[in-house]
Amino acid sequence: MSTLDDLVTEFARLPGVGRKTAQRLAHHLVQQPGERLARLAQALVQVAERVRPCTVCGNLAEADRCPICLDPRRDAGLVCVVEEPAAVASLERAGEFRGTYHVLGGRLDPLSGVGPEALRLEQLVARVRAGGVREVILATNPSMEGEVTATYVQQLLAGQDIRVSRLARGLPMGGDLEYVDGVTLAHALSARQELR
Amino acid sequence: MRLTRLTVRGVRNLADGTLELPAAGAVLLGANGQGKTSLLEAMAFPVLFRSFRTAMDAEVVRFGEPGFHIGVAFEDGARARTVAATFRLLGRRKQIEVDGVPTRRLVDAAGAWLAVVFAPEDVQLAAGAATGRRLYLDRTLALADPRYLATLARYRSALAQRNAALRQGRADLAAAFDLPLADAGAAVVSRRLAWVQAAGEQFTTGLVALGEQSGEATLGYHGAVELADPAAWGERLVQAAPRDLARRATTVGPHRDDLDLRLGGRLLRDYGSTGQQRTAAVALKLLELDTIERATGRCPALLLDDVFAELDPERQARLAARLFGGRSAQVFITAPRPDELPRGLALPVWRVSRGQCQPGD
């Protein structure tokens, strides 16, 4: 049955979904009532039609600008630089950050053919040059490529009269020292803070 | 460390199944091509999850099989432990389990089971190319200190990214990886230097103890020793930048370094006789054994592949005294005939024939 096979193939292209899971999903769906499938289909069509990158920060948006860039209560003088939109969602869940974001769309990764021009770096520099930005917080992932990307952005912004900071690295809250890996512990030790 | 059980499936010409092994070890007797070396290869594989005969896991797979599985059960002091590796040709994936728990990172599994292999091809350590000596150095240090393996992995990924950028002709992108390269690279150089310094004297006395008297043997480090300091990298990388770009590869760093082995001031690789090279290689293997023992406080099993046949009787006796005297390591030793074994070896004899291995005399 080629219609069902097409659906299985589409599912199997999704990240983390293998051929078997794809088959299970497809067989589950065909047994659902028609209107439920229609809702799913409509949701997909709408995502395709409406969701696009925010013209300011690159985050997911349904208009020219994302809700965060449009929110007047957010501090546009603070820009948090992340690799992917998923990181914006995580930081928003934390609820602590009241500034705005800049989504690079990846990280420097020459082995995968990703150089600076593949990232939204020019847009970031343009945002800073346009004025009003006091601080750029580099929140790329604490992997080697993430660190390299952070350093690269830092150097790009070197001439600008703004503060550039990097997220702290160290111990996870509610964790157990026993289970922390050596590299993290070493960072936590070297970045220890004096108690006052 | 005592290997109690070895399970193999799909490994070269070995019969699939599980062997219960004697605590003292065994002599593995059998004609050539019966599977003696493959048995030692299987025993040694779960140490660093690579074969001592090949860098390609796929070559270990018996022809026509989808992959291989090697599992070892062993006693580490009073603890009974297991390590297993499963390799599938499809996707070239290697799964590792330690004590029944799947492990994602090699660092968490490396050296749980410890064994040191002595094989005829060790002579390449003294006679062959630098790659073999770097591999020896990295393996020894990784087993002595798991942090070294983690640092080396970071160095290799920084190097791979930097070289990829250079291949694309992107000097600016390559330079972005200078910092992690210098950071991990300096740690690699400094750890290697510390080892060479500590091991030098033992190498010298080790060759004398093995009967080498034609001059003083020395062990040194060949490479830019100033790179043990991360601060020294910046200038060196800037100097090398045009050359790196032209060659499309990083030309500075410990991935190009070598061990400097000399006898009477002359390079063993170029001027040593085969006998001298063989003795030096044995001395290096003994250093590996001692380094791992001292650092971990554990006694690796000895896997000896036909090593005595290559030595004259006097050196045979000296090596046997060094390996078996005053030690209680588990020993597995292969030979085609009983008369090619050192005298006074009191080990159970197992026969290896057509990939099958069983007790017998």
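The first strand of chain B starts at residue 2 and ends at 9.
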